[in-house]
Specification:
By secondary structure, this protein is mainly alpha-helical. The protein folds into three domains: 95 residues, no CATH class; 90 residues, Orthogonal Bundle (DNA polymerase, domain 1); 164 residues, hpI Integrase, Chain A, CATH 1.10.443.10. The chain contains 15 helices and eight strands. The strands form three sheets. Strands 1-2-3 form a three-stranded antiparallel beta sheet, covered by helices on one side. A three-stranded antiparallel beta sheet has the order 6-7-8, with no helix packed on it.
Length: 380
């Protein structure tokens, strides 16, 4: 890396009135760009010798110049250390070291903090997904330090995610995770509270996505699955027939099947910690049971990530006319199908593991709305 050119400048913006004191700054020219650090020294134009880059005609000229030379020497010594150790650096790194601020990576801090947290596995995976996006963003730009984590940087991160065709609601979820770690960094004095980057940042409200398949679409996917061995489609259909979340299907084992009068799927949900108890021999004509029996073991499911399956499901959705099909649509389909077939809302709440029945009522309202729409069509 090429060494920077460091010098002193006075009244850089030429904005001081005649006879008024103006700031002396350290100018650092690095990688084709000039950046500046304040020295805290204010003097008038006739007290500055621009050729010699020093203070003159001031009662404390000697002391001030010694102080300025010491500052120049300090930043040169910092840069020399990076050069000799062949460590990449930029102006912000030099400035932070010069001012005694932290150059620690915000992402590295997040990863360390996650290891200390007692969270459910599904939540941990969500946090890791956010970290992965931050890492990709850093690879395309530069390291996010505590000092560079500003409102502008957050907005640039948004533009980056939007350029990757990410939905605004998904971006909002990632920001909720990032904000939690920013708050933790403030508690540990890594970030000054007055520099809180989310102070003027508004996290986009997440609209409830209750996209679901109707019976015809579900049957179409079932026929498609019978004609091809598609692990992505099979996992999705298992979600439609059991209501299990992706993480629970991903980690499904045959030992979770209990044989009584019928086969029951009993598994502790990763998100809620509650035990599921689903009759897979009866629900949806035993389709879940058939899918599970088609595999000697469930290990292949572990190789599928949430991102992978959603990419594949989007392609599958286009074949049946469903825009942006993703895995969570399977849970919505499970709930709406059971309600349409007449199962009471309390039983659906139990199967969905909703702690609040009002969450389940969202699906009941959706079913009622669909019924009303169908009735209206009869008289139009």
């Amino acid at each position: 890396m090429q060494k920077s050119k460091i010098t002193l400048v006075h009244n850089r913006k030429k904005s001081a009135n005649v006879g008024a004191a103006a700031l002396v700054q350290i100018k650092c020219y690095l990688n084709g760009k000039s950046s500046y650090i304040s020295t805290g020294v204010y003097i008038t134009a006739n007290q500055w010798n621009d050729k010699k880059k020093e203070v003159v005609k001031h009662e404390n000229s000697y002391k001030i110049n010694a102080n300025l030379r010491a500052k120049i020497a300090k930043i040169e010594a910092i840069e020399y250390e990076y050069l000799t150790k062949k460590i990449p650096y930029d102006f912000q790194t030099l400035k932070n070291d010069f001012l005694g601020l932290s150059n620690d990576s915000f992402l590295a801090f997040c990863k360390k903090e996650l290891q200390k947290k007692d969270l459910k596995e599904a939540t941990i995976n969500n946090h890791k997904a956010t970290f992965a996006l931050l890492q990709k963003y850093e690879n395309d730009t530069e390291t996010i330090t505590f000092q560079s984590l500003t409102l502008d940087r957050l907005q640039l991160f948004d533009k980056y995610l939007l350029s990757k065709n990410m939905e605004k609601s998904s971006i909002g979820r990632h920001h909720q995770t990032i904000r939690a770690y920013v708050n933790e960094a403030i508690k540990k004095n890594k970030i000054d509270a007055k520099d809180y980057p989310y102070k003027h940042y508004q996290i986009k409200a997440q609209k409830a996505d209750i996209t679901h398949l109707n019976e015809l679409q579900l049957n179409e996917l079932q026929k498609m699955a019978e004609n091809e061995n598609n692990i992505y489609l099979n996992m999705f259909l298992l979600g439609c027939y059991t209501g299990l979340r992706f993480a629970d299907i991903q980690n499904l084992e045959k030992s979770a099947i209990e044989n009584r009068d019928y086969n029951y799927l009993r598994k502790k949900a990763q998100k809620t910690g509650k035990m599921t108890n689903i009759n897979i021999s009866v629900l949806f004509k035993g389709n879940a049971e058939k899918i599970i029996n088609s595999y000697e073991e469930m290990k292949p499911f572990l190789q599928v990530s949430n991102v992978q399956i959603n990419i594949k499901l989007k392609e599958i959705g286009e074949k049946i006319g469903v825009k942006d099909l993703h895995f969570h649509v399977s849970r919505h389909t499970f709930a709406t199908q059971l309600l349409e077939k007449g199962l009471d809302i309390v039983s659906v709440q139990e199967l969905m593991q909703h702690s609040d029945i009002n969450t389940t009522r969202i699906y009941a309202k959706l079913v009622n709305q669909q019924l009303n729409n169908n009735l209206l069509k009869l008289w139009q």
